[in-house]
Amino acid sequence: MKILHKIQQLRFAIWMLFMVSAALSCDRCLHKSKVASDARANINGACGYGTSATSLTTRGGLVTASASAKIYREGVGCGACYQIRCTDPGVCSKSGVKVLVTDFTKNTQTDFVLSARSFSRLAVPSKAAQFLKMGTVDVDYKRIPCEYGGQNMTVKVDKSSKYPDYLAVQFLYQGGQTDITAVEVDQVGSSGWQYMTRNQGAIWGMQNPPRGYLSFRLLVTGGYDGSWVWPRRNLLPSIWTPGSVYESGIQITEIAQEGCSPCETGNWTDTYVN
């Protein structure tokens, strides 16, 4: 356990050095790529959200998306929100679509894969049918804060959990524009925080979890600093069951900074048709 703690400290120190080097960066890096349409795209993806993705996208006004390796980042990118716009002014809408990363794509020609219905929303309604036939289009995209209409972050006991020997959790409705890079759990009233491991996408798990009422704390990387965030309440009861959901009472609102050029700090230039 001490070795794992030292490794985590080293990783955090390296990350801090990177963030200091990006001190003149912005939070709206504009990227150019391609987006593909795939009728088989679905919400039951590599992030492990399963049917929870429906409630996430509904409350956040989002659509689900499969993301490339550089965005998925072995699961770190799960739950991140992006705004995507295609670049043909004769076909594309100004707003494009806002997506939630729920899956990983092995397609090396694109950064995102959308369902046919979501893909067609990149175009103005009158051109949606012909747009859908294109299959792959050039786009601009940027990461945006996730917003869930006042909904606090919640903790869901994953279906893979087996009381009392194995505990796996997901953190749903994570707001802001940050990444959860570490999770620790502790019995309420104790000071023996224990690390959980990222098992699959957004799922964190551990063997032989602490007994009794449990609390969690999260290492969130965003802005120019990283910080531990945890609710001042018991999150899991002494006897927990797979599928149970508990509200944390808090919401993450930090905005991550990126080192990039060009730096998009305002609205995109309105060169698209309505």
TrEMBL record:
Keywords: Signal. GO terms for cellular component: extracellular region. Residues 44-151 form the Expansin-like EG45 domain. Transmembrane segments: none annotated. PROSITE patterns: EXPANSIN_CBD (PS50843), EXPANSIN_EG45 (PS50842), PROKAR_LIPOPROTEIN (PS51257). It holds the Pfam family Expansin_C. Residues 165-248 form the Expansin-like CBD domain. SUPFAM superfamilies: Barwin-like endoglucanases, PHL pollen allergen. The keyword Signal applies. Belongs to the expansin family. This is Expansin-like EG45 domain-containing protein.
